[in-house]
Write a structure and sequence with these properties.
There is one protein chain. This protein has helices at about 5-15, 45-55, 80-90, 100-105, 110-120, 145-155, 210-220, 255-265, 295-300, 310-315, 330, 335-345, and strands at about 25-30, 40-45, 60-65, 95, 120-125, 125-130, 135-140, 170-175, 190-205, 225-230, 240, 245-250, 270, 280-290, 305, 320-325, 350-355. The chain has about 375 residues and is of the alpha/beta class. The protein folds into three domains: about 5-100 and about 335-355, NIF3 (NGG1p interacting factor 3)-like (Udp-n-acetylmuramoylalanyl-d-glutamate--2,6- Diaminopimelate Ligase, Chain: A, domain 1); about 110-130 and about 240-325, Udp-n-acetylmuramoylalanyl-d-glutamate--2,6- Diaminopimelate Ligase, Chain: A, domain 1; about 135-230, Alpha-Beta Plaits (2-Layer Sandwich). Strand 15, helix 10 and strand 16 (about 320-325) form a beta-alpha-beta unit. Helix 2 packs parallel to helix 3 (about 80-90). It starts with a helix and ends in an 11-residue tail after the last strand.
Length: about 375
């Protein structure tokens, strides 16, 4: 099996189009054409992790954090990034990063796993990602409607929330006149033809537009297919930053803090003053999430769990919610398990391993 087959599957779950502009998700070293001998999942692709991959017979490291964020002008081994890249290249180890694109997939991504560990239900994004949806309009002869509509659905269009195969059709009359050299499906070249058609409307994720259009054209009987593809301003709660949901039952604040410490194995939680109110609505954001504090407030969260909160940012809680900083590594540590599970489920007869190398650069005394 090639590395591209594996990374292609990961990108079907967390499309690269969902990553933030500053990010560098995707294949960082190696070639997608290589035959994969084994996969090692990790949070960070460090030099030690590459060494572990070699020892354990893996030539693909799937990491959450990209080892390279900006351009490398020199690769001389002067820092850990350059040393990791050098070793990966020398050992023929491919490094693949699935970072903010996985963060931005709400249900099956990093924040969804955090919510799962705490029993949070009904999660939706705190900040929905713009530009993720489009609408396709196409004009289909009535007798071929089901064939074309089925092809569009099979290509991934027509999902709205928990519903699939969503579309709308309006019947009308279409006209066309074939020019010289055309072979129209109906009518004669040089004569205007009127055909009973349906204007078919369907919503789709923007990153699937190319495949959906190709499927539509392949199933459509016309020589030239008339269609419109329009960007939508609609938000999609399933794609975006952070997550907010509900606990099964309200909890006392100190009891909820104890649950956080237990589930994430943290020796200490930095937090703002407790409010004295029960905890029922909880917001989370794995990694650095201070940019979502105002969103957590607006959404009515009682608790906001994240990391890398600066001193003055804690004041933004304003006595209206509790901000709990559990540490960057600690908030994302279960991403290793998440990647392991989705890969093992898909590639059952293939070696998928979890890294045993501790990459957390922060220790507590």
């Amino acid at each position: 099996m090639t590395i591209s087959a594996i990374t292609g599957y990961l990108e079907s779950l967390a499309p690269l189009a969902y990553q933030e502009s500053y990010d560098n998700a995707g294949l960082i070293t190696g070639s997608g054409d290589w035959e994969c001998r084994g996969i090692l999942t990790t949070l960070d692709a460090t030099e030690d992790v590459v060494g572990e991959a070699v020892r354990r017979g893996c030539n693909l490291v799937v990491a959450h954090h990209p080892i390279v964020f900006g351009g490398l002008k020199k690769i001389t081994g002067r820092n850990y990034v350059e040393r990791t890249v050098i070793r990966a290249i020398k050992e023929d180890v491919a490094i693949y990063a699935i970072h903010t694109n996985l963060d931005n997939v709400v249900a099956g991504g990093v924040n969804g796993r955090i919510a799962q560990k705490l029993g949070i239900r009904g999660g939706r994004s705190l900040l929905s990602r713009a530009g993720t949806l489009q609408k396709l309009f196409c004009f289909v002869p009535f007798e071929h409607l089901e064939l074309v509509r089925g092809a569009i659905f099979s290509a991934g269009a027509g999902h709205i929330g928990g519903y699939s195969e969503c579309s709308f059709g309006t019947e009308g009359l279409g006209t066309f006149k074939g020019g010289e050299g055309t072979t129209p499906f109906v009518g004669e070249p040089g004569s205007r033809h009127t055909e009973k058609e349906v204007r078919l409307e369907v919503i789709l994720p923007s990153h699937l537009s190319r495949g959906v259009v190709q499927a539509m054209i392949a199933a459509h009987p016309y020589e030239e297919v008339a269609y419109d593809l329009v960007p939508l301003a609609n938000t999609w709660d399933g794609v975006g930053s952070g997550l907010i949901g509900e606990l099964p039952e309200p909890m006392e604040e100190k009891a909820f803090l104890s649950l956080i410490k237990k589930q994430f194995g943290v020796p200490v939680v930095r937090h703002t003053p407790l409010t004295g109110r029960p905890v029922s609505r909880v917001a989370v954001c794995g990694g650095a999430g201070s940019f979502l504090i105002s969103n957590a407030l607006s959404a009515g969260a009682n608790f906001y769990i994240t990391s890398d909160v600066k001193y003055h940012e804690f004041f933004d809680a304003d006595g209206r919610l509790v901000i709990a900083d559990i540490g960057h590594f600690e908030s994302e540590q279960f991403t290793i398990d998440l990647l392991f599970e989705v890969l093992q489920e898909k590639f059952r007869n293939f070696a998928v391993l979890k890294s045993e190398t501790k990459t957390n650069p922060i220790n507590y005394f």
